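Appendix B. Extra example for self-study. Work through it before the problem class; the solution is given directly after the inputs so you can check yourself.
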Amino acid sequence: MPTFRTNILCCAGTGCNASNSALIYDEFNSELKKYGLENEVNVIKTGCFGLCQKGPIVAIYPDQVFYSHVKVEDVARIVAEHIYKGRVVTDLQLSDEDLKSGEKILDINKIKFYEKQQRIALRNCGKINPEDITEYIAMDGYAALGKALTEMKPQEVIDVMKASGLRGRGGAGFPTGVKWQFEKDQPGDEKYVICNADEGDPGAFMDRSILEGDPHAIIEGMTIMGYAVGAHKGYIYIRAEYPIAVNRLRIAIDQAHQYGLLGENIFDSGFSFDLELRLGAGAFVCGEETALIASIEGKRGMPTPKPPFPAVSGVWGKPTSINNVETLANVAQIINNGAEWYSSIGTEKSKGTKVFALGGKIKNTGLVEIPMGTTLREIIYEIGGGCPNNKAFKAVQTGGPSGGCLTEKELDTPIDYDNLIAAGSMMGSGGMIVLDEDNCMVDVARFYMEFICDESCGKCTPCRVGTKRLLEMLTKICDGEGTMEMLAEMEELCEEIRDTALCGLGQTAPNPILSTLKHFRSEYEAHILEKRCPAGVCKKLLTYSIDPNKCKKCSMCARNCPVDAIKGVPGKEPYVIDTAKCIKCGTCITSCRFGAVERK
Amino acid sequence: MKSLEDLKKMREAALKKVEMREGGKDYRVVVGMATCGIAAGARPVLNRLVEETAQKDYNCVVTQTGCIGMCVYEPIVEVFDKNGGHTTYVHVDPEKATAILEQHVGKGQIVEEYTVEAARKGGETA
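Solution. Structure tokens for the complete assembly:
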């Protein structure tokens, strides 16, 4: 194995890939050749560093220098200066400003975004080449599998999982060890395990990044799970919309086969296990376990009533355990380091760490992994850097379409499963969308209801028809045609859907409405009573006008208006908007250089 | 792969490849790789340091830096220990690099004769 003096790690996660990181990787290779450095310096594609906002990210080791927003044309300079001459290109370097002194912080471990994080599930993301099994092995990969198969009985593995306190990271938070025990205790020798990689919440990309950055961790976690419950076959159910993750999983499964870590008689223990990928077509409902199982079996992805639970009758009618990607990413770490280590992290009832995908109105969009018990305020302000452009924070949405909003009042809540439910939201799979003063909460509720209507499978009436009615009412309110009676009707319907829908999708669908009604009832009332959208989002409630005192009569707005709704005389008469013609597209606001256009 | 032994062997072989990316070593060996350093022969020194470190498992990371400002003394190698100690070696060639790793990083003994202080005493100025 050759030794390289320097490693250049290019992020090849989906976020950075979208901003040309693949070309950057190629450019590094060709620039290094120019200097004859290709045998001294190694270029590696790696997984997500988490700081997607600053991508594409390139890390140089052992120097521990991180470059952000790297463009293809910057590569020549990085190679010439940093790699060849050893001078860090400071203007491209990832940095943070010290809030007190205003000094630049360049040490990656002191940057606020990373300082508060503790990476267990993401530990290899951005550090290893996900397409090279030897790098995973170097990071203690497959040691936990070896330990489990050669030194532990299946029941001992389950006992460790129970003692660790790990709970399902898909959202519901069911204790993982207990789930495994249910399946192990079932009679029969044909059993299955499934990895649920059907990540569907809008704005969530935790599982995607783990699969892209550290696919072997999932293979190892599933094999250990198979050993513990007595299954010899596992399915990874992943959406076809995740092509990079699918590709890296395929490579990883092949490599694991080559090294004898999947297949017959693993570690000479007599235990055999194999994995199969099943690609889903990206239906949200297939994240629900019974629908997921139906989809694996080749049937239409629709849920079935529980019981029977999958642990009793799952895929092909056999006992099956389903765990989420992030849950499985923790398994090998727990076996390696012990239950005590894991349960020392986190809060009393929620152990370990949780990965969140930070999105929306936040400076540092990206992926963060924090110990349970960290407060929302720490995540949003210290790690996330707060709302951009000095806008005021309004709410944070957790749990996606099944979750709810939390406001300023709840920001000091330590994050764990129970606290978030008590505060009126839920952990969910880890999407965290920050909303600021420019977000209309009625519009947010409508967005989620639209999503649910699209994704409802239609099997049960409460979900199929009920969510449609909710969406209609929300749309009317956004259009200024709502009545106060609608609010009461919505609340009643929400409760009915919650109590009567067949599966989790329908049962939780009303949550975004209920939580926005609870915290932001005044916004609903402004839409209904005053026909006004306080955040200035709902188009039909907005009127555009030009302040004649500010108008410089330059004609810019009129020339840009797509429907000729603005009239005036250049240099002589101030411009006026014909509100009957206006389509409220907002082009005049962006084209006016004097701030004369007002939106109310 | 059939045993934990096999896995361990594979891990050790693969570790060298990635451990350069981890911190936590006792020493940091830094080579001045600005134009002046390269012209004076820093590249073979760097390569020797990297090879030897990998082969003999020295407890250090080897990295490069820019011009230290004493171009007349190039190639310069600086060794930082984890307690904040700092030694500057000057006019280093590949043989001296080997000796520095052996003595300083391996045994914790500074190779006085190659240090900048020794060069100054010898009448050189910078």
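Self-check: The longest helix of chain A spans residues 461-478. If your reasoning did not lead you there, revisit section 3.
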